[in-house]
Fold these 4 entries.
Entry 1:
Amino acid sequence: MHFVYIVRCADGTLYTGYARDPGKRAELHNAGRGARYTAGRRPVSLVYAEAFESVGDALKREHQVKRLSRALKEGLIATRGALRHAQDAASGSKRAPRQAQGVVSGSNHAGR
């Protein structure tokens, strides 16, 4: 699987990236080896991940998400959280869904 992920930095900003394992990637960010942007904004917390079968689809989506405004990214994060809670309640599971539906366009990488 290929993932687009968003981490929330200690200063409140959002960072979007691509990874094969978003949890391990967040650990790398927290170790100061993830990205220059996040190195000085630790700790980070993984707040969103979206799964894709192909690397091409994941990279296209990463580009779309990076261009979203901060408000739209926050909406994406909130919607995923609401979806996760609804699915957990319905299935009795504590696991997050692996794929979000829909594509939104916008602008701004860092989401400040």
Entry 2:
Amino acid sequence: MTNIIEEIIDECDAETEDNSHRHGHPAVTTDVDMPPTKPVTVIGNGATLKDFDFNKLTGDTIGLTMAYRYWRKIDWYPKYYVNVDHVVLNHHHKDIQEFIKEDKCEGYLLSRSILTVCPDLKDNVKVIFLEDLQKQMGNPFQYLIEWCSGSVAFLFAVILGYNRINTIGIDCNYVEFLPETSKCQDGTLLIRETPTSNPNYFIDDYQIAGDRYNKPNCEKVHMVSWCHIVFILTGYTRLNNFLMSVYCYTTDEVEGLTKFFTKKDIKTFFSEEV
């Protein structure tokens, strides 16, 4: 059977040659052969995952951005990796390219911006690019206006055919400017020293001295991107008769994505994991 990532790459290549005949996206399975429940967990990096045991995860997973540093420490990796943050990709391109070479995941969804510093990734059969998905006729990625790596990972799960999406660690409650942070001339932020306590992430050293990153802009970027996802998801599932359920696992104190999706207690995740 052809790898799903290879199928998507083939579709992207076909779109480049001729996009006039596309009316749907074949990566989404809605036929009778699809199992009743095809679950996936989209894993953010928020503080609600503090002390979370990743090694207990048994199903398909999608992980994000700089968490691969932690995954290396615990020798656990998600099925898919997503990172479409231009600043993070550019600043950490050597380490991200090395991570991809380690071949721990089945697929990697990146932004083409990394090709300016890592052009060889274009030839990696497991790597696909957000900008290519956005060019495909019939692909819900066409309708993205604002996005972040988390919302892109969610929509990626949709086109991969998952019909139960669990989100964990997507807290959307960033402290916008840490005491250990300086603002650079280009508007990005620099971690001057590794935080002793980082309220934004599930481990305090998620960001370390020397890291460059975008200001979170939670309300103007992250939450807006999730509003767009809900709009896209509603239209896409109705047009394709694609039934699905979405759950946001969080704590009582953190709203996370519960304004959009059904709330569940993160403490019950493993007892309810499908």
Entry 3:
Amino acid sequence: MMAKTHQAFAVFSVLVVSKYAPGSFDNIVLACGLSMFGALLPDLDSPQSSFGRLVPLLSKPLHSMLGHRTITHSLLAVILLYSVLTSSPQWHSWADAICIGYFSHIVGDMLIGTNGVALFWPLKQKISLNPLRMQVAGAGEYLVFNLLICAIVVQGLTHFYPSLDLMSRAGPIFNICVDLYTKTILPAFTSLTFKYSSLFNGL
């Protein structure tokens, strides 16, 4: 998935959480910005990525040792990051938004691209949820990106200008995306989690 799609998906994920769990974020704009930052972090393992190019001293050796979409694209990484952030007084209040962005990146890479991610690292098996075989930077991804932008604009304007009543006019765009996310992606991800969690019993 392209960096801009990762960031759009992160913002959309924050808006979904905010919609179904009102009050989750004190400042929705800040939460969206932090999620966009978090959405870039998993690609620390790729020297060619937007974030990896900023920190080549970390991304190059990490890529050499472990490859791409391994530990940084795993549930273990999400748990470790959340633990570190919540244990810090300076970062505690930002942990949810950053980790939502981080986790959305992992889900995004399972949905677009054919390589999958090592979700249950240190197990090396890579998992993909891409039945349509959408390619990175392909027509399918650009369609997803534009749908996400439409949904974000509609929900953002509705949040800040409720008198516009946009949800009654363009709201179906957001609702379609939410339905796809909550009724298709999350159940599939949950099913995979239960299916493969038993593999950890022998570790």
Entry 4:
Amino acid sequence: MDTATIKQAVELRKAHLNLIRYSLDKGHSITVHYGDGDDEVTMSRDFALIKDAAEACDESYILIYDHNKKRIGWAWVIFGNEDNELVSDYSATDYMDKWWDQFEEMYEATE
């Protein structure tokens, strides 16, 4: 197994990075803000840019948009929590519930 594959596997155990990858893999766009009304990243599909913005403060909000620019979910990320608890809260939508179910299953299977 090469180093890049290992790094990605480790990243996917972090809830916020799993959500970002899950959403981008489905063709969605992501906005990141810090709760102050200004977007740090707007409707992006760039994993590195989104990751850097989401991790730039102690907490951030990740907003997910579908192909029609309709918001389909959000997550509140608080750093300092355990990897599986970095997403401290999220919207009660089918999309976010499906994301959480696959994340929780993966996380438990890789403990």
